[in-house]
């Protein structure tokens, strides 16, 4: 580590415990950072596209996750390197913002870094590279807008939406029944979508999974499924036209929050207290009964006396329902969550056409279905599958599909997939490069090359000759002036993505390019890394 | 410049071929482990737990073996998981599913080594699985309309399931037991209603199905030992010191007399409660919680049989059997549904005294009392019987039946082979491999029985080339036999679940090209 010396030759201590830190600076720092970023991208590269492979991850506790989702892989990876952590953040922000394309964004950033390294070797200043990338990304962004197409759909004509979701799902393990799952995802999103405001609240879609059965048994339920059963084994298992009281107060004696003591010192007091206690349970149940509820859903537990009273008065009840589920039930049934028994009124009750308990398999597994709700704005996707990992992966895949459907409702512009958008951008950026004077021209040209890496990876993963395929497609795009030519991953026979119906959302693609450029710029600007050396 | 370390200490990463090899080897090791337990002549395993007491389990049940293993290999965990799901979902075939997945991966490994891309293999496997399933669907028999035949189907299935277990000596007896029990359920899959009671002593043959309900409890002293036309109140209430539930209540007294007064009041309260219970007009009271001496004495005075501390399942089952409801408050005796049964008596099984409820209102529930030489035998017998019961309940719901003894595998293999011949491209190799993996199952059954598997399988294949063949491996005589005549059947649902989840798992493992293992969480040294 470089030291500074004062006029008497004594070293200055600039950093605290300077000797114990490692420090890399200058070009070395940039190289080290770039190689770390590329290493992350290399891991994800093989997961890209419909023929991409999965990764098996073992968590610190020994649980196994098998996934194809970039964000999940990186999240679980136990990354230690600082730059690698930046890449993890990158994919996470794509996940939050768009929900899909988490792998692509990291591969893109990796390619940009790779190109930057070459430029650095030529002695181009990192800031100039960053600026060039910035310009290029703007060109690509605008070009995407130009080649994008609006596509029309309505609540009745969902076919285009389904097609887009299928593109997303085809890269996952669930592609066996992607058609069905895509339809489920689209229907779910449309059920909760606010088409006037063009917004979708994905919180209203509950994704619940249960091992067993097969993937084909996955279903969309216009209602809520709760992993709970009735509090008393002898309560009715099926309630029609249920009026639901949704409570957040326990069927237990009152528990004032202030500390208090009730002193019993005479026999009378003892007896009155006992009577009051009984009275109390009676009142609670009576209040529910009085407002006309035929089902009680409660966030807390029941005292066994209260439980029996409920059962006795023919008032089925469910206990220990989680807060989020409670909210969903309230939304779906149009009821209000009632925090005190005194505040129960008939208007606050939720309504559902059918509540039923369903049991699964050979063990005592029961779930409660609340269907035909007053307000069908909350839906549940119920996933079945051969094993736990399968269900988890299906959940993640469906989440991606739901996000895509939502994005389309927000903005119905699409670009074509299969790398066609990237190739087209690459051609546009390359053509634009010559118009820029100065060193940035090189950076812009490199950007174009980096864009090629996504179709290259797609072709490679599909077992095609990467360079051959890419050059063929590229020349075809230029020759026919058709920006929809992409990589034919599934060996369909045509590489016109319009015919293959492979779509991606415009905002997803734009976001990918913007985010990747931003992170790369950030990495390039770092010229000094100081870290404690004892890790 | 070398890539800096990306992952944390101790976290490992395996890529490409190495990763694939690691998962193949792990999965095959697991399959090989349970392979020897397959089939009627399969062997058992002894499992010793690492916990205190070093408990020993002797078992033949795939799910039980795998559950007990501590596995580090992630691919192996996938297999353990599918076997567990198979157990939960259909109850049987837990070994077959693992073995089939293992064989599929073994075949896949060969293909990968001959440079076929895993995705191509997956595509082939998918087509093959679909084709195999269709073949099964086509060949499945459904005898739902004919109750006689259906019952004999059930009996055959139960016998086939049991023949690979410890109960195989008395399989006819137990098969009948299981079928009777399941038919009483009348189509519900709720196995809770069938109680299995294990009592060491006697031999397995002494096990019996009881129509009533047996509660493993003793009758209180001084209470009647035999009640006819019993009216039963099933309760879940505190019968010790009925504490005040209002929060923060406590007794504070300033003199001895007051203590006495309150004690008297407490006693009075309990007496009132007991009075209320008695006012239901019952002669038997079953409580989930403890009953203290004082109320017990009161019950004895009233000539009521009081049973304390029945476990929760027992209570629920009893309520189910007798048709009563589980009560916790006793203020309106007229509207509480009481349970009824013809006779309650104390019976002896071995050395233990138990309470027997017979002539119950609802005939759904029943009890199977298992007798056997040791705890291990009983445990294994229970597992075997549980498997048989699960399969039977599933079959009652989905009454399609297949023949056993490797017949379904050969049928599927034949169809899949034909598909392979029709399919152009590399996929056909994978489809062929699938058929080989299917044939591995009868091979293993034959091997385990000490038969010449190569000879048998080739004979079997030739047999199956004829139309409507019903031949399979007859392990007893050691040759190819007619499964229909031998009465070896299997449930369609189990076979389908085996096929689908094994393919799914194999596909999942094949798709992996990288394994990243996080550093194991540091555990405090508590040992």
From TrEMBL, chain A:
Would you name any one GO CC term?
Answer: chaperonin-containing T-complex
Q: Does the keyword Cytoplasm apply?
A: yes
The record's gene field reads LOC109722970
Which keywords label this protein? Acetylation, ATP-binding, Chaperone, Cytoplasm, Cytoskeleton, Hydrolase, Isopeptide bond, Nucleotide-binding, Phosphoprotein, Ubl conjugation
Tell me where it resides: Cytoplasm, Cytoskeleton, Microtubule organizing center, Centrosome
One GO molecular function term? unfolded protein binding
What PROSITE patterns does this protein's entry cite?
A: TCP1_1, TCP1_2, TCP1_3
Q: Can you say what this protein is called?
A: T-complex protein 1 subunit epsilon
This protein's assembly is summarised as: Heterooligomeric complex of about 850 to 900 kDa that forms two stacked rings, 12 to 16 nm in diameter. Component of the chaperonin-containing T-complex (TRiC), a hexadecamer composed of two identical back-to-back stacked rings enclosing a protein folding chamber. Each ring is made up of eight different subunits: TCP1/CCT1, CCT2, CCT3, CCT4, CCT5, CCT6A/CCT6, CCT7, CCT8. Interacts with PACRG. Interacts with DNAAF4. Interacts with DLEC1. Interacts with SPMAP2.
Q: Which reaction does it catalyse?
A: ATP + H2O = ADP + phosphate + H(+)
Q: What InterPro entries does the annotation carry?
A: Chap_CCT_epsi, Chaperone_TCP-1, Chaperonin_TCP-1_CS, Cpn60/GroEL/TCP-1, GroEL-like_apical_dom_sf, GROEL-like_equatorial_sf, TCP-1-like_intermed_sf, TCP-1_chaperonin
Sequence similarity: Belongs to the TCP-1 chaperonin family.
Q: Give the source's domain of life in one word.
A: Eukaryota
Protein role? Component of the chaperonin-containing T-complex (TRiC), a molecular chaperone complex that assists the folding of actin, tubulin and other proteins upon ATP hydrolysis. The TRiC complex mediates the folding of WRAP53/TCAB1, thereby regulating telomere maintenance. As part of the TRiC complex may play a role in the assembly of BBSome, a complex involved in ciliogenesis regulating transports vesicles to the cilia. Molecular chaperone; assists the folding of proteins upon ATP hydrolysis. Known to play a role, in vitro, in the folding of actin and tubulin.
- Provide the primary localization: cytoplasm
From TrEMBL, chain B:
Query: Which Pfam family name is an example for this entry?
Result: Cpn60_TCP1
| Chief location of this protein within or outside the cell | cytoplasm
Say if the entry is tagged with keyword Ion transport.
no
Q: What keywords appear on the UniProt entry? A: ATP-binding, Chaperone, Cytoplasm, Nucleotide-binding
One cellular component (GO) term of this entry: chaperonin-containing T-complex
Protein location: Cytoplasm
* InterPro entries recorded: Chap_CCT_beta, Chaperone_TCP-1, Chaperonin_TCP-1_CS, Cpn60/GroEL/TCP-1, GroEL-like_apical_dom_sf, GROEL-like_equatorial_sf, TCP-1-like_intermed_sf, TCP-1_chaperonin
What molecular functions are annotated in GO for this chain? ATP binding; ATP hydrolysis activity; ATP-dependent protein folding chaperone; unfolded protein binding
**UniProt xrefs under PROSITE patterns:** TCP1_1, TCP1_2, TCP1_3
Output the SUPFAM superfamilies linked to this UniProt entry.
GroEL apical domain-like, GroEL equatorial domain-like, GroEL-intermediate domain like
Asked whether the keyword Nucleotide-binding is assigned, the reply is yes
The task this protein performs is described as: Molecular chaperone; assists the folding of proteins upon ATP hydrolysis. Known to play a role, in vitro, in the folding of actin and tubulin.
Report the sequence similarity comment from the record. Answer: Belongs to the TCP-1 chaperonin family.
Q: Which PANTHER family match?
A: CHAPERONIN (PTHR11353)
What's this protein's name? T-complex protein 1 subunit beta
């Amino acid at each position: 580590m470089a030291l500074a010396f004062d006029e008497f030759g004594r070293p200055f201590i600039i950093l605290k415990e300077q000797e114990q830190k490692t420090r890399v600076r200058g070009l070395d720092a940039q190289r080290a950072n770039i190689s770390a970023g590329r290493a992350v991208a290399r891991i994800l590269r093989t997961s890209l596209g419909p023929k991409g492979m999965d990764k098996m991850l073992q968590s610190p506790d020994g649980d196994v996750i098998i996934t194809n989702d970039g964000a999940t892989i990186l999240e679980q990876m136990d990354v230690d390197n600082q730059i690698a952590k930046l890449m993890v953040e990158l994919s996470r922000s794509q996940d939050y913002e768009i929900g899909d394309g988490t792998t692509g964004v990291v591969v893109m950033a990796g390619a940009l870094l790779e190109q930057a390294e070459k430029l650095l070797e030529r002695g181009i200043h990192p800031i100039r590279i960053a600026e060039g990338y910035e310009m290029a990304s703007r060109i690509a962004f605008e070009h995407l807008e130009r080649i994008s197409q609006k596509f029309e759909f309505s609540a009745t004509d969902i076919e285009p939406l389904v097609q887009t979701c299928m593109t997303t799902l085809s890269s996952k393990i669930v592609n066996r029944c992607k058609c069905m799952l895509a339809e489920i995802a689209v229907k779910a999103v449309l059920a909760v979508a606010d088409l006037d405001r063009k917004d979708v609240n994905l919180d209203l879609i509950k994704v619940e999974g249960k091992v067993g059965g097969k993937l084909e048994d996955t279903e969309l339920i216009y209602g809520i499924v709760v992993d709970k059963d009735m509090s008393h084994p002898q309560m009715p298992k099926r309630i029609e036209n249920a009026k639901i009281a949704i409570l957040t107060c326990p069927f237990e004696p009152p528990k004032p929050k202030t500390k208090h003591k009730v002193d019993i010192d005479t026999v009378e007091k003892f007896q009155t207290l006992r009577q009051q206690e009984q009275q109390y349970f009676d009142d609670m149940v009576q209040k529910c009964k009085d407002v006309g509820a035929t089902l009680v859903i409660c966030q807390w537990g029941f005292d066994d006396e209260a439980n029996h009273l409920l059962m006795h008065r023919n008032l089925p009840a469910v206990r220990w329902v989680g807060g989020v589920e409670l909210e969903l039930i309230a939304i779906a049934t149009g009821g209000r969550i009632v925090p005190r028994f005194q505040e129960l009124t008939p208007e606050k009750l939720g309504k559902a056409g059918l509540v039923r308990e369903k049991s699964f398999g050979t063990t005592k597994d029961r779930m409660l279905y609340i269907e035909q709700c007053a307000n069908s704005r909350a839906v549940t996707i119920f996933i079945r599958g051969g094993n736990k990992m399968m269900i988890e992966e299906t959940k993640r895949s469906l989440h991606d599909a739901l996000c895509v459907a939502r994005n389309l409702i927000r903005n119905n512009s699409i670009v074509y997939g299969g790398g066609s958008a990237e190739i087209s951008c690459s051609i546009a950026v390359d053509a634009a490069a010559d118009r820029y004077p100065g060193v940035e021209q090189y950076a812009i040209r490199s950007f174009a090359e980096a864009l090629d890496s996504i179709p290259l990876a797609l072709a490679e993963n599909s077992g095609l000759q990467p360079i051959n395929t890419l050059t063929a497609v590229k020349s075809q795009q230029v020759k026919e002036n058709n920006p929809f030519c992409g990589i034919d991953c599934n060996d369909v026979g045509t590489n016109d993505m319009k015919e293959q119906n492979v779509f991606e959302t415009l905002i997803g693609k734009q976001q990918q390019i913007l985010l990747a450029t931003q992170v790369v710029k950030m990495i390039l600007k770092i010229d000094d890394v100081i870290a404690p050396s004892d890790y | 410049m070398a890539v800096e370390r990306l992952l944390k200490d101790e976290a490992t990463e395996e890529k490409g071929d190495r990763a694939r090899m690691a998962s193949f080897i792990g999965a095959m090791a697991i399959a090989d482990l349970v392979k020897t337990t397959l089939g009627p002549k399969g062997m058992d395993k002894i499992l010793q737990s690492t916990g205190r007491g070093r408990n020993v389990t002797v078992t033949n049940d795939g799910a039980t073996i795998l559950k007990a293993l501590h596995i580090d290999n992630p691919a192996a965990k996938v297999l353990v998981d599918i076997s567990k799901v198979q157990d939960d979902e259909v109850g049987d075939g837990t070994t077959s599913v693992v073995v089939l997945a293992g064989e599929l991966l073994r075949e896949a490994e060969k293909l990968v080594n001959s440079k076929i891309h895993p995705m191509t293999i997956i595509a082939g496997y998918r087509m093959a699985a679909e084709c195999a399933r269709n073949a099964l669907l086509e060949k499945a028999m459904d005898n739902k309309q004919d109750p006689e035949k259906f019952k004999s189907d059930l009996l055959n299935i139960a016998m086939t399931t049991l023949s690979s277990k410890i109960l195989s000596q008395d399989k006819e007896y137990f098969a009948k037991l299981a079928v009777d029990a399941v038919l009483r359920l009348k189509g519900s899959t709720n196995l809770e209603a069938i109680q299995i009671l294990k009592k060491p002593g006697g031999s397995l043959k002494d096990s019996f199905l009881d129509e009533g309900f047996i509660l493993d409890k003793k009758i209180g002293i001084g209470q009647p030992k035999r009640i006819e036309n019993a009216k039963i109140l099933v309760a879940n209430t505190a019968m010790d010191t009925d504490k005040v539930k209002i929060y923060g209540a406590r007794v504070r007294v300033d003199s001895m007399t007051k203590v006495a007064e309150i004690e008297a009041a407490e006693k009075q309260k309990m007496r009132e409660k007991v009075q209320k219970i008695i006012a239901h007009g019952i002669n038997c009271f079953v409580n989930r919680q403890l009953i203290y001496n004082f109320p017990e004495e009161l019950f004895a005075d009233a000539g009521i049989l009081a049973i304390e501390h029945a476990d929760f399942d027992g209570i629920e089952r009893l309520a189910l059997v007798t048709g009563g409801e589980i009560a916790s408050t006793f203020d309106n005796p007229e509207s509480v549904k009481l349970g009824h049964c013809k006779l309650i008596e104390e019976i002896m099984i071995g050395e233990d005294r138990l309470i027997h409820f017979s002539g119950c209102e609802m005939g759904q529930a029943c009890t199977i009392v298992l007798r056997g030489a040791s705890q291990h035998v009983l445990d294994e017998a229970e597992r075997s019987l549980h498997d048989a019961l699960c399969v039977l309940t599933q079959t009652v719901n989905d009454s399609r039946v297949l023949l056993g003894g490797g017949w379904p595998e050969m049928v599927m293999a034949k169809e899949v082979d034909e598909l392979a011949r029709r399919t152009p491209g590399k996929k056909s190799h994978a489809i062929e491999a699938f058929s080989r993996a299917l044939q591995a199952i009868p091979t293993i059954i034959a091997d385990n029985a000490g038969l010449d598997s190569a000879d048998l399988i080739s004979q079997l294949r030739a047999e199956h080339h004829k139309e409507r063949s019903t031949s399979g491996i007859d392990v007893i005589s050691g040759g190819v036999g007619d499964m229909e005549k031998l009465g070896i059947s299997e449930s369609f649902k189990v076979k389908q679940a085996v096929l689908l989840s094994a393919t799914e798992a194999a596909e999942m493992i094949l798709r992996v090209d990288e394994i990243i293992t996080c550093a194991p969480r540091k555990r405090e040294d508590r040992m």
